[in-house]
Amino acid sequence: MINSGSQYYEVVFDAINSGQQESNTHIVKEFDRHNHTFIITETQSPLETPRPPGRFRVMLQSQKYDCGEFQAKHLSCSHVMATCKSVNVDPMTYVPMIFTLQHILHIYDNSFDLLPHESMWQEYEGDQWGPDPRRKRTAKGHPVSTRIPTQMDEDENERANRKKCELCRQHGHSRNNCSNVSSS
Fold first, then answer.
1. Nearest Cα to 26, choosing from 35, 12, 11, 38?
2. What pTM was estimated for this model as a whole?
3. Residue 156: what pLDDT?
4. Which of 105, 111, 152, 181 lies 20 to 30 A from 160 at CA?
5. What are the CA-CA distances from residue 108 to residues 11, 102, 103 (Å)?
6. Over residues 115-133, mean pLDDT
């Protein structure tokens, strides 16, 4: 990138090119030329969004656009490209400085000290932080139910715990000690 002589990051050129292609379908109406405020009307729906064609306000001096694309990506959208084309302004003047190669290279100007070997580190004497063991998941077994039992659950449990004889169908005993069966 630097050897090619370009001043901006390549993402900027991709955004400018796609914005200029889309701007061919926009109609620019002057709203307030003194304050650089314009109304842009789309004649076709954009391909990337399924919304109908709309009307957007572009304020060049304050760099505020109704479509929200500039606020999201910090790059000029097709509405700004159409406006710049209608007033003969270079759209690169509205590209933020963070996209210049000099700014990107400046980020990496700082030098980083090498870390010494772990055996040379000083012992830490502050608070020790770790995960809460009470919140740790159990690795094995069935998950524990977190449902709060109600009165209806208690009635079902009582019915299930009552013994019922399989022979005489009476409650309170099992078939092993049923008194209604004659022993032979």
1. 38
2. 0.49
3. 62
4. 181
5. 19, 10, 9
6. 88
